[in-house]
Write a structure and sequence with these properties.
The complex is a heterodimer of chains A (about 300) and B (about 500). Chain A is of the alpha/beta class and about 300 residues long. Chain A has a single domain, classed as Aldehyde Dehydrogenase, Chain A, domain 1 (3-Layer(aba) Sandwich). Chain A is about 40% helix and about 20% strand. Chain A contains eleven helices and ten strands. In chain A, helix 4 packs across helix 5 and helix 5 runs parallel beside helix 7. The termini of chain A are far apart. The longest helix of chain B has 22 residues. In chain B, strands 14-15-16-13-12-17-18 form a seven-stranded mixed sheet, with helices on both faces. Classes of the chains: A alpha/beta (about 300), B alpha/beta (about 500). At the A-B interface, strand 4, helix 10 and strand 10 of A face helix 8, strand 18 and strand 19 of B. Strand 10 of chain A pairs parallel with strand 18 of chain B, so a sheet runs across the interface.
């Protein structure tokens, strides 16, 4: 066998797909990796298989980031989400290539998925500084009081992405949740690792504060019970759960009255339909705070 | 559990020589049956077995009520489904609105009788049932009546549709008002209802059923099954319920959320609380003292949003305690039907036992008990309004929801510490902030994790004002535009 030097060929630098926790890219603490192969069976990469401890670490990072993120001005949150779209646009070729090479998409489908993902980020970016106006209001109470209701972030949200849409399916559930001011830990299937970590690199360069979005790749059956039982998670959203998993999640969530939101899995072309970007994908992760104050001289 | 005996600290009773003569509300024009089963399909129906409900101020039985069996619950749910399919979903929304307006008007017309019955069955002072519960219950129907034919304007860009049949379970602290909070938005949004009132306070729900008959509400649109927690469990677990709404303890709420796992039923929970009432050193103290009193002693403290943790800025602690002690000595505890009564009867023997246990825990954990020096009636369930000083956050009286007239006083030094202490609880229902500085009030309000914030006020309610909790105080809102959401399918 000839070495690259002997053939004048350059050795490709392979990328290690790790996790994205607290703004850093650590390996899973468990040291476990899974070899990913493309449709023709060729080796693509070793992906990290996140452990329950990684999930707990990610929740700690999200909790640390949550208050600061919710406390930033809506205008700033909006600009940061828009910045993420800009970063994605500038990496569109590389994201498209990953979808083709690692996830077996056609060039056309990959381009469509990347475009839809960028547009989705832009759409939700625009909601950050309008939510309070559209969802909140003054209440005309029958007495000398000023009274208003406004939406606030629920806090730390764990999301489980579906199997069928590695990039758009993830962006479509993460964007509305951070748009509302929550911090997120999103868990994707291990097979999605290449595009998930590419997306993490987009977020890492978007001025998004560390810990606001944490991305894990792992097995849902390993991570879901831990998330359901975790006492410092405020809400869980999940796509494509089996009935058994729903019972497990909602039953576990009841221990700390977590909010649970469920959605069906769908393909990237189905996610791309405008129906799947909605104000009412933001509201399940918001609380309404009502404040009273007397009026009088 | 053994508790240390401690003589409560009291100051001299106020206004020596002055006495209030009894001013009893007359009960001669109230009427109710000796026995109620359930209210199903527009008719009062018999039950297989019955239990008695008492007047907690006299311990005398008022009437008997059906103990709803699974079969009776099933009949009620079938009636609600029929009511939904046959009548309520077919009615033009503007006609739904008119039924609700009619109910609101009838509640106003029967307000006096209902207020008296609420006090007789629940134990709350007549001035509260007359001035708070009844007006608010009527206002709730009136407010949601208007939404029934305007739902397309409620949520921008969304298509809305009713869910179907709602199963609702309510507590004993505001029996009629909680029924109104549950039924009015459900009906306005086009759903039908099976509601279970608390087993100690089912009387005014039966009178509400009479009002529904008087309003000619179509059969099955609202059904009441009486009974205890077993009946409630049969209701929320019934397979033909589309939505469950529960107000009550966090413990039962948790159990319901668990039971509903995987069923796809929509759920809202309005659960317990341990509200912080924060008094800054620049607060208007006279008003703040009244706010503290209202916050904890309103409805004997049987209020999920009660301000049961008083956080006082350290520099004014002694002054607040001095004034609070004086104000406590002027509270009148006694016959709930007396128009001068400030604090009425504890709702049940079980609740009285729980409160008394906590009074013991407070002393046991090292806090100092200050009890109102008022005389208590010789029979019925009464307890002297109490506050504790020297309370640490880890004390049971500081951490647990007592649901009684027991206040825990703690101190803080900085606004940051006040926020941290206020938020250091799994609950998140209510909080109060007392300060004359607007910027401080806004800053603190925005950091408190609670669904209702009262600035320089406490325990205010209104049909237009959304109510509900953060964290383990539950999810979903009741009241206001946001109170429609739990009863609608929203697409858009």
């Amino acid at each position: 066998m000839k070495t690259p030097a002997q053939t004048n060929m350059r050795l490709t630098v392979a990328k290690t797909y790790k996790l994205f926790i607290g703004g850093a890219f650590p390996r899973t603490e468990s040291g476990r990796s899974v070899a990913l192969r493309n449709r023709s069976g060729e080796f693509v990469a070793n992906a990290s298989r996140a452990s329950r401890k990684d999930l707990r670490e990610a929740v700690v990072a999200a909790r640390k980031a949550a208050e600061g993120w919710a406390g930033r001005t809506a205008y700033l949150r909006s600009q940061i989400l828009y910045r993420a779209a800009e970063m994605m646009e500038s990496r569109r070729e590389s994201l498209t290539a990953t979808l083709v090479k690692a996830h077996g998409k056609t060039a056309k489908a990959a381009e469509a998925e990347v475009s839809a993902s960028i547009d989705r980020l832009v759409w939700y970016a625009g909601w950050c500084d309008k939510l309070t106006q559209v969802l909140g209001n003054q209440n005309p109470v029958a007495g000398p009081f000023f009274n208003m209701s406004s939406p606030e972030a629920t806090g730390v949200v764990v999301l489980f992405a579906g199997e069928s849409s590695p990039l758009l399916g993830l962006v479509s559930i993460v964007a509305p949740v951070i748009c509302g001011g929550n911090a997120v830990v999103a868990c994707s299937p291990i097979a999605h690792a290449p595009i998930v970590i590419d997306f993490a690199e987009v977020l890492a360069t978007s001025d998004l504060p560390a810990g606001v979005v944490n991305l894990l790749t792992g097995n849902r059956d390993e991570l879901l019970p831990t998330a359901a039982a975790h006492r410092d998670i405020d809400a869980i959203g999940a796509v494509g759960l089996s009935m058994e998993e729903q019972v497990l999640l909602e039953g576990g969530a009841s221990a700390t009255i977590k909010r649970v939101w469920l959605d069906a899995d769908r393909t990237s072309s189905a996610w791309a339909v405008a129906d799947h970007q909605s104000l009412y994908r933001i509201t399940p992760f918001l609380e309404v705070k009502t404040s009273w104050h007397p009026m009088g001289l | 559990m053994a508790t240390k005996k401690q003589t409560p600290k009291t100051t001299a009773a106020a206004a020596p020589g002055w006495k209030y003569e009894p001013a009893l509300e007359s009960t001669d024009h109230v009427r109710f049956e000796k026995r109620y089963g359930h209210f199903i399909d527009g008719k009062f129906t018999a039950a297989k077995s019955y239990f008695g409900a008492i007047n907690p101020a006299t311990e005398e039985q008022l009437a008997e009520f059906g103990q709803g069996s699974a079969a009776e619950v099933d009949t009620a749910v079938k009636s609600a489904r029929r009511g939904y399919e046959k009548y309520w979903s077919k009615l033009p929304p503007s006609e739904r609105a008119k039924y609700l307006y009619r109910i609101a008007r009838l509640l106003q017309e029967h307000a006096r009788e209902l207020a008296i019955l609420e006090t007789m069955n629940g134990g709350k002072p007549i001035k509260e049932s007359r001035d708070v519960d009844l007006p608010l219950a009527a206002a709730h129907f009136f407010y949601y009546a208007g939404w029934a034919d305007k739902l397309q304007y409620a949520f921008g860009g969304a298509q809305v549709a009713p869910l179907g049949v709602a199963g609702q379970v309510i507590p004993w602290n505001f029996p009629l008002l909680m029924a109104a909070w549950k039924i009015a938005p459900a009906l306005a949004c086009g759903n039908t209802v099976v509601l279970k009132a608390a087993e100690t306070t089912p009387l005014t729900a039966m009178k509400l059923a009479e009002i529904f008959q008087e309003a000619d509400l179509p059969p099955g649109v609202v059904n009441f099954v009486n009974g205890d927690g077993r009946t409630g469990a049969a209701l929320v677990n019934h397979p033909d319920i589309n939505k469950v709404a529960f107000t009550g303890s966090t413990e039962v709420g948790r159990a319901i959320q668990k039971q509903l796992a995987g069923t796809g039923k929509r759920l809202t929970l309005e659960l317990g609380g341990k509200g912080a009432n924060i008094i800054f050193d620049d607060a208007a103290l006279d008003q703040a003292i009244e706010g503290i009193i209202t916050g904890i002693f309103f409805n004997q403290g049987h209020v999920c949003c009660a301000g049961s943790r008083l956080l006082v800025q350290e520099s004014i602690h002694d002054e607040v305690v001095r004034r609070l002690t004086h104000r406590l000595s002027t509270l009148r505890v006694g016959n709930p039907l007396d128009k001068n009564t400030d604090v009425g009867a504890i709702n049940s023997r079980a609740q009285l036992d729980k409160i008394e246990a906590y009074l013991g825990y407070g002393v046991e954990d090292g806090a100092v008990r200050h009890a109102a020096p008022c005389p208590l009636p010789g029979r019925g369930f009464f307890v002297a309004p109490t506050f504790f000083t020297g309370v640490a956050p880890a004390h049971r009286i500081a951490a647990d929801e007592i649901f009684g007239p027991v206040l825990s006083v703690m101190t803080f030094r900085t606004p940051e510490e006040a926020v941290a202490k206020a938020n250091a609880t799994p609950y998140g229902l209510s909080a109060g902030i007392w300060t004359d500085k607007g910027s401080k009030l806004f800053a603190v309000a925005s950091q408190l994790k609670a669904g209702v914030i009262w600035g320089n006020s406490f325990n205010r309610f209104d049909a237009t004002s959304p109510f509900g909790g953060f964290k383990e105080s539950g999810f979903g809102r009741e009241g206001g535009r946001q109170g429609l959401l739990p009863y609608l399918e929203v697409r858009g």
